[in-house]
From TrEMBL:
Keywords: Cytoplasm, Signal, Stress response. Residues 1-28 form the signal peptide. This is SHSP domain-containing protein. It comes from the Eukaryota.
Length: 134
């Protein structure tokens, strides 16, 4: 027979785990600065990623037309005889989500990582053609 307090306790633990996972995701999103620009034929996302290797970055578009940029920033290897006096640089996972406009062509994406700045370019779909019958 299960204890009613055990059920409550397990539910509380599950909630706390979910909350801290969510809080970590929010912290990862807030800590990654980005600019989004619109041009006549494309959208450009510029994201600061200092210290992140290109192979540690993932760029994808989900089926709900959301651009997701995620990855992992690693701590440099510790060296023998070195003592940290202060550790302020962020490490760990990061993620940004950008809902895409309806005219974004999620099948035509390019990205480039240069000097710690990731630039993602998404082409726009051509405008719809209006046919008028006289």
């Amino acid at each position: 027979m299960r204890n009613k307090y055990g059920i409550v306790w397990n539910s509380l633990l599950l909630f706390c785990k979910s909350f801290w996972t969510y809080a970590g995701d929010v912290r990862a999103m807030v800590a990654t600065d980005a600019d989004v620009k619109e041009y006549p034929n494309r959208y450009v996302f510029v994201i600061d990623m200092p210290g992140v290797k290109a192979e540690d970055i993932k760029v994808e578009v989900k089926e709900d037309n959301v651009l997701i940029i995620s990855g992992y920033r690693k701590r440099e290897e510790e060296r023998e005889g070195v003592e940290y006096l202060r550790m302020e640089r962020r490490i760990g996972k990061f993620m940004r989500r950008f809902p895409l406009p309806d005219d974004a062509n999620s099948h035509v994406i390019s990205f480039m990582d240069q000097n710690g700045v990731l630039t993602v370019t998404i082409k726009k779909l051509p405008p719809p053609i209006d046919f008028k019958f006289d």
